[in-house]
Amino acid sequence: MRYALGLLAAFFAQASVAGEEYSGFGMSQLSCARYVADTASNAKFENAYSWWVAGFVTGTNLAKGRVVSTDNEAHIAWLKQYCQAHLSDPFSNAAVELDRELDSRRQQ
To answer: pTM of the entire structure?
Structure first.
């Protein structure tokens, strides 16, 4: 199951980075405005997004053989900042931009 989720997240990241169309699932289908509103109003939503982000980052790390020295709290803080500045973007765009940011900080 973890492997399948990792592959799904990896496909999502690779397809969008390459400029191709992709099918996003779960939280990726929501807007950044919805993310900001949901996480501000309900801790259960914040937990759900946090787990989705953890799976997405883990999957892209696995697919890319990437090692990063950040944690999920840092990823959530980055996403909140991004989404507050880009309310009309899909949440999936925020996740892909986080993936690009993590690539730029990749440990070799």
So the answer is: 0.74
Cα-based torsion angle of the residue sequence 34, 37, 43, 46 in order, rounded to the nearest 10 degrees: 40
Mean pLDDT, the chain cut into blocks of 10 residues (108 residues total): 44 46 63 93 90 92 90 94 96 92 80
- Which ranges constitute the DSSP H helices of the chain? 2-17, 32-41, 43-64, 72-85, 91-104
C-alpha torsion sign, points 40, 30, 49, 14: negative
Which amino acid is residue 30, in one-letter code? L
Dihedral angle, C-alpha 13, 47, 104, 85, nearest 10 °? 90
Q: Report yes or no: 14 and 99 within 8 Å, Cβ to Cβ.
A: no
62 neighbors 12 (Cβ within 8 angstroms): no
Q: CA 70, CA 56: separation in Å to the nearest integer?
A: 14
